């Protein structure tokens, strides 16, 4: 059965590892930083496709483009330190708010508040077009990792390198209909909560408390401070945030429809297309026994390496900014 992020709990019962040549392990650190050491630059706005996108930019304008995509329930501040590190190395680093976060808004009140994976992939390409970027290195985790993978699968000519936390996260709707063992299902409790009217009302009423709980559970060794959380929590005040989040998770479980204009893209993604561009995948403690990356190794057919970060939770770029930035720099040289 095709693997999605939802399957990681099931993989706790599976054994296997990729070859030593394709997997590097990083020893445990003293602990992730409580907060970012660098501020992000000012947020700019640009019309791109369906959206008016808020984004930050760092580094020389003529540097090699890198686009870093955040996840849920996080925001652009996940990349404050990694962005500064890469900018100092000469990269042009662009970090956009995803739809439903921060200052990114819809250009039309009539556009569906759609959280399906193909919509987010189109957002990324539209941003590249608006900024005049023909090809870029993409990096991401969670929603951002899935989006980066999907852009690389749908438009490989637009992606010169990929750093994907969690590996091949593309959603297969048919596979997601299959039940998992109870312990695996337990890890996705919030998806079932969001499937109910009570869950939608609860998330709308308690958004910031809910998301802080997710931060804590997903990164138990990350002792982030209040100021760090507040930096990102402001992004959840976006007027479309709850609608996008609820639709994203209901769509994954086939409880809400997507848009027909994305049907061809979703049909292609359902075939689990190989990613041919240079790629580094990263796993952390969040992935449990699946952190060896063997389950998705076959989906990457170009230059490839898998890296394991011990002592790090789900928000890899913020918890391990130097390691994440090093992966971007290494994939830029085809993992030499």
Automatic annotation (TrEMBL):
GO terms for cellular component: membrane. It is an enzyme of class 1 (oxidoreductase). Residues 65-221 form the AB hydrolase-1 domain. It comes from the Bacteria. Keywords: Oxidoreductase, Peroxidase, Signal. GO terms for molecular function: chloride peroxidase activity; monoacylglycerol lipase activity. Residues 1-30 form the signal peptide. Transmembrane segments: none annotated. InterPro entries: AB_hydrolase_1, AB_hydrolase_fold, AB_hydrolase_sf, Epox_hydrolase-like, TAT_signal. This is Non-heme chloroperoxidase. GO terms for biological process: acylglycerol catabolic process. Gene3D superfamilies: alpha/beta hydrolase. Its EC number is 1.11.1.10. The lineage of its organism: Bacteria, Bacillati, Actinomycetota, Actinomycetes, Mycobacteriales. It holds the Pfam family Abhydrolase_1.
């Amino acid at each position: 059965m095709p693997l999605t992020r939802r399957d990681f709990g099931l993989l706790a019962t599976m054994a296997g590892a990729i070859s030593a040549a394709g997997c590097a392990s990083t020893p445990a650190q003293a602990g992730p930083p409580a907060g970012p050491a660098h501020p992000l630059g000012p947020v700019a706005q640009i019309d791109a496709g369906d959206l008016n996108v808020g984004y930050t930019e760092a580094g020389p304008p003529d540097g090699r483009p890198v686009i870093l995509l955040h996840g849920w329930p996080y925001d652009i501040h996940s990349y404050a330190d990694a962005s500064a590190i890469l900018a100092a190395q000469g990269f042009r680093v662009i970090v956009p708010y995803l739809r439903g976060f921060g200052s990114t808004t819809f250009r039309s009140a009539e556009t569906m508040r759609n959280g399906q994976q193909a919509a987010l992939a189109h957002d990324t390409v539209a941003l590249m077009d608006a900024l005049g970027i023909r090809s870029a290195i993409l990096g991401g985790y969670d929603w951002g990792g899935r989006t980066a993978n999907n852009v690389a699968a749908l438009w490989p000519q637009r992606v010169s390198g990929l750093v994907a936390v969690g590996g091949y996260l593309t959603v297969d709707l048919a596979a997601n209909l299959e039940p998992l063992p109870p312990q695996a299902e337990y890890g996705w409790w919030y998806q079932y909560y969001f499937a109910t009217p009570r869950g939608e009302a609860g998330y709308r009423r308690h958004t910031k408390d809910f998301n802080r709980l997710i931060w804590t559970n997903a990164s138990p060794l990350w002792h982030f401070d209040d100021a760090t959380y507040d930096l990102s929590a402001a992004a959840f005040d976006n007027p479309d945030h709850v609608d996008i989040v609820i639709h994203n998770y209901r769509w994954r479980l086939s409880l809400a429809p997507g848009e027909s204009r994305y049907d061809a893209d979703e049909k292609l993604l359902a075939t689990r297309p190989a990613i041919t561009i240079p790629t580094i995948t990263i796993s952390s403690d969040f992935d449990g026994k699946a952190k060896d990356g063997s389950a998705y190794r076959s989906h990457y057919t170009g230059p490839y390496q898998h890296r394991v970060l011990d002592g790090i939770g789900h928000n890899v770029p913020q918890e391990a900014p130097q390691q994440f930035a090093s992966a971007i720099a290494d994939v830029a040289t085809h993992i030499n």
